[in-house]
């Protein structure tokens, strides 16, 4: 029986794709005077920002500073929930489930997006990189969310995300996994890590949870 559903934030709950792309472009251009193809930048989605930047410079702090300044400045005008997000979260809460966010984004920026659309009321736990030594794709963030909720068996949880890092985090913790087809990461790459489910919308999640519960009862 599924007790909790955990979501990645960027690219899963909130459409931040264009903001992230433009933030990377700006940082690489301003600090390194280079243009990195969007196809390459898309492969960074789901990674800790520090790790992505370290591929291009041994001194990542200036890159991080420039990225974050641009991202913060343009955040509110370039972010919105994906279609069906709020309706899905509301239905899942009505089903009595715990809900959580597990993100690679720093807490202050993650909360900026969550608060912008009054989403905090749906989430019982929000795990950011400041909370764990391990980060996605390792199991640590999901295990931390379980710890905070008092869930002893991670197999009673579900991880929903748009990147291989999200799916592997769930798998490494023995949780069920759901990948969203609207990810900017290619479907073939997502399928390569064998998510348990693929969905076109978060509106499908309540049905998957009900189906999993009925299967377990049977």
From TrEMBL:
Signal sequence extent: none
GO molecular function, one term: inorganic diphosphate phosphatase activity
Entries under InterPro entries matching the protein: HAD-like_hydrolase_sf, HAD-like_sf, HAD-SF_hydro_IA, HAD_2, HAD_sf, PGP-like_dom2
Entry's EC annotation: 3.6.1.1
Enzyme kind, highest EC tier: hydrolase
UniProt KW keywords: Hydrolase
Classification via Pfam families: HAD_2
PANTHER family per UniProt: PHOSPHOGLYCOLATE PHOSPHATASE, PYROPHOSPHATASE PPAX
Entry protein name: Pyrophosphatase PpaX
Biological source species: Youngiibacter multivorans
């Amino acid at each position: 029986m599924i007790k909790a559903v955990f979501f990645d934030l960027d690219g899963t709950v909130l459409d931040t794709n264009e903001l992230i792309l433009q933030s990377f472009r700006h940082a690489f251009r301003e600090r390194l005077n280079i243009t990195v193809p969007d196809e390459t930048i898309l492969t960074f989605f789901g990674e800790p920002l520090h790790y992505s930047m370290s591929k291009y410079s041994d001194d990542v702090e200036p890159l991080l500073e420039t990225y974050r300044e641009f991202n913060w400045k343009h955040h509110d005008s370039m972010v919105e929930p994906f279609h069906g997000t709020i309706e899905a979260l509301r239905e899942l809460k009505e089903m009595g489930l715990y809900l959580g966010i597990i993100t690679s984004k720093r807490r202050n920026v993650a909360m900026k997006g969550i608060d912008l659309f009054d989403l905090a009321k749906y989430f019982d736990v929000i795990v950011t990189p400041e909370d764990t030594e391990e980060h996605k794709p390792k199991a640590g963030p999901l295990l931390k969310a379980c710890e905070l909720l008092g869930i002893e068996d991670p197999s009673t949880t579900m991880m929903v995300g748009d990147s291989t890092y999200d799916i592997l985090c769930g798998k490494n913790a023995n949780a069920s996994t759901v990948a969203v087809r609207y990810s900017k990461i290619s479907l073939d790459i997502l399928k390569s890590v064998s998510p348990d489910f693929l969905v076109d919308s978060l509106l499908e999640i309540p049905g998957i949870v009900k189906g999993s519960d009925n299967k377990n009862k049977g």
